[in-house]
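Need tokens for this chain, all 128 residues.
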Amino acid sequence: QVQLVESGGGLVQAGGSLRLSCAASGFIFGNYAMGWFRQAPGKEREFVTGLSWSGSGTRYKDSVKGRFTVSRDNAKNTVYLQMNSLKPEDTGIYYCARRAGLYNQVTVPTTPREYDYWGQGTQVTVSS
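Here are the structure tokens for all 128 residues:
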């Protein structure tokens, strides 16, 4: 069965860095685009970043551009999110997700309904 397992979250001071990982199993990882979303308390889940099946195409939320970098290692079935210069507003639960469908894996949608499998999430807390 499809599984996505995030790790790497934690508590960090503003200006610090974290690297999240998402280990995938149960499907051919290299065939799918992947996304990272986050959800803060009382807010809706929002798109953060994502990349195409090959990693050549990426997309970022405006507020994280220049601070976050998404990457993937298809040999290790893992997608990464390097987060630098963290701000308190980056606090939330971070989820990785698999893009749904078979033929649109070069694109990176921003809406959650375009993703069919989700990890359990990892908490990121940035203190001021």
